């Protein structure tokens, strides 16, 4: 699996950057029925999965910082995936049930109230926040690993680490900031992928 490290990181970077860029930012619940609503959220979920796979594929036993990055990334992915699934599929179905011109279905106010009920429900909110806190821990561990490794891995590690730390607070930012955050995170992951591959190629065989 180590031979695919570059592609795991690049895939994570592309997914993280594409999610906010493709996500519909119009008024809800109209945005929920946009054709890009589900694919964008699936890309967001894929970013966390690929991040966990990439961190695990980088031989975490080589250093405590890499081990902590892998453990926190895997835990974070496990905890945020249910929320992404609910956002992607649940809100798309809810948006489709909103009353149209024909008068059938639920009204928009009810749809928004239902969405807030599950978005802010204690179990949903707790698991999502816990997952993003785990992702933040992965960001700190990644920053430590980049500082200790030096060389070309520093830039990617710093960009990715800071962006992972900011993943929770950026949810409260306007769309332009969230898109920029995704781009920064994407660039960081891609840089890690390339430098990790070069480092592996330069490492002498045992």
Overview of the molecule:
The chain has 206 residues and is mainly alpha-helical. The chain has helices spanning 5-22, 37-57, 64-96, 108-119, 122-149, 153-165, 175-202. α1 runs antiparallel to α2, α5 runs antiparallel to α6 and α6 packs antiparallel against α7. Mean pLDDT is 90; it is low at 201-206.
Order of helices and strands: HHHHHHH
Low-pLDDT residue spans:
201-206
Percent of residues in β-strands? under 5%
Q: In percent, how helical is the residue content?
A: over 70%
Number of helices: 7
Q: What is Rg? A: 19 Å
Q: What best-fitting shape do the alpha-carbon axes yield?
A: elongated
Distance between the termini: 18 Å
Sheet/helix structural class: mainly alpha
- How many E strands? 0
Outline:
By secondary structure, the chain is an all-alpha fold. 74% of the residues lie in helices and 0% in strands.
Strands, helices and their partners?
Layout: H1 5-22, H2 37-57, H3 64-96, H4 108-119, H5 122-149, H6 153-165, H7 175-202
List the defining traits of the structure above.
mainly alpha; 74% helix; 0% strand; elongated
